């Protein structure tokens, strides 16, 4: 009589471990953002500031699109950010019907701090990898971040 052992294939085990690491990085990212984020900002306000900087956005429509928010929600959040002094509105010289939005004062400072935090995290991770490991990680991340490649869903 032989005992049946359940054995996880090495690839499945490696995938599970990698998934765990990615989830941990995501949790650290969120925790890190919370240490930089002004307590007077909501997560939506922070998201809008961050996406504006990342994608160089200047209109409410573009911001709503990149944040996945309704236009009405985005307009209300942008209005709060203007009142708090994080954003400034300027008329578009080409189209007077359009108001362009720009990061100012506290908004720029917050994103400068966030950028420094990201750089520190990246430096700390890279210091732990030798050149061969860096090359493997780079190839893997390039592959999963290619548009249409990394996050495919089953039909």
Descriptive notes:
It is a single chain. The protein is mainly α and 155 residues long. It has helices at 10-36, 43-55, 60-67, 71-84, 105-127, 131-144, and strands at residues 87-91, 99-103. Strands 1-2 form a two-stranded antiparallel ribbon.
What brief labels describe this structure?
single chain, 155 residues, mainly alpha, Arc Repressor Mutant, subunit A, 6% strand
Q: Sheet bearing the most strands, described?
A: 2 strands, antiparallel
Number of helices, counting only DSSP H or I runs of 4 residues or more: 6
Helix content: 55-70%
Flag low-confidence runs: 149-155
What's the alpha carbon Rg, rounded to whole Å?
Answer: 21 Å
Strand content: 5-15%
Task: Give a concise summary.
The protein contains six helices and two strands. By secondary structure, the protein is mainly alpha-helical. The protein is elongated, with a radius of gyration of 21 Å.
List the helices and strands and how they pair.
Elements: H1 10-36, H2 43-55, H3 60-67, H4 71-84, E1 87-91, E2 99-103, H5 105-127, H6 131-144
Antiparallel strand pairs: 1-2
Helix pairs in contact: 2-3, 3-4
């Amino acid at each position: 009589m032989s005992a049946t052992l359940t054995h996880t294939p090495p690839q499945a085990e490696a995938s599970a471990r990698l998934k765990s690491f990615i989830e941990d990085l995501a949790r650290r990212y969120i925790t890190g953002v919370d240490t930089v984020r002004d307590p007077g900002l909501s997560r939506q306000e922070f998201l809008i500031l961050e996406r504006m900087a990342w994608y160089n956005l200047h209109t409410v429509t573009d911001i709503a699109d990149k944040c996945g928010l309704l236009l009405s929600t985005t307009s209300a959040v942008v209005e709060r950010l203007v009142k708090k002094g994080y954003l400034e509105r300027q008329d578009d010289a080409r189209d007077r019907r359009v108001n362009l939005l720009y990061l100012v004062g506290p908004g720029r400072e917050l994103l400068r701090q966030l950028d420094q935090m990201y750089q520190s995290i990246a430096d700390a991770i890279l210091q732990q990898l030798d050149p061969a490991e860096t090359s493997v990680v780079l190839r893997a991340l390039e592959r999963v971040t290619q548009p249409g490649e990394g996050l495919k869903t089953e039909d």
